[in-house]
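Attaching the record inline, Q. Sequence:
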Amino acid sequence: MPLQQLVAYFNERICKERGLAQPPLSLQDNRVEGRYGDIILSSLFHRVRLTASPDRIVGHDACLRAYIDDNNLYEALDLFASAEGSSVIDLDRLCRTIHMLNYLPNAHEEGLLFLYVHPRHVLNVKRNHGAYFEEVLFRCGLTPQRVIITIETSPGYSHGYNSVLIEGLTNYRERGYGIALKLASGNGSRHPDLLRQVLPNFVRLDASFLNTQEHAPDGFSQERIKSLVSVAHELGGQVLQERIETRAQAAAAGDAGIDLVMGAYYDTRYGLSNPVDKRLSANKRLSADCFLEKALRADIQTDTAPNPA
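Structure, as predicted:
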């Protein structure tokens, strides 16, 4: 189905489900944008590469761009942090629908698509996690087997709501989705136990692992990273290191046995993941951090996880 028809289909569906007077999706220069209140949402894709052969692309990581009409970036702290209950579910589904529609030009490459799901979405959906998005995928001609659901861990969610999150991720897995856990270097002593509980297909290491290597032994040293990689491999998973920007970081990733990589270092050497959106002025573009990644971290620091009951 042509992209314009898909946008029309999802606009009709979302408006009916949420009682909206104005359709939230629009097609601009062959890119799909969404609206959430006054906020404009769009997609940015980063290429996921094999560490041993970084010219080989195995998938794309979808990140969220968000901005407002007056050339100012919308604060990443606010979008998910201010959403409650069903609003979190609606916003999360809207973001993934936008990513899915914008991914379609790359869909023929047969790679994986990494998509964030907010922890509060998993907590607020009581059952059948992934069923709604499965319909989105099928409408776009794809299947859950090509989608990796990424959830970022945090003490606020992974400690107090472990069983609920694991049940939700199990629902996704049973529908054929892959599971990725994104870890930060803080509280690293709990990482192995968490991996053994969730059994993720992918373990994602954020940029803090790269930063703390330079501050060993106080930080997350190279040997501890190797140990974490070993646990992931033992459980049948693969490890993805994000935000590699230098030759030294790339060499450290290879030395640690990390399977997959992404970052500016490789994009410079092997080509950018996608063209710059020239419609966004310089002061409108997001910084290197993905919008949703920032929002998740802010939510972790400021929000109390909702009652799963």
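The mean pLDDT is 79. The radius of gyration is 19 Å.

More tomorrow.
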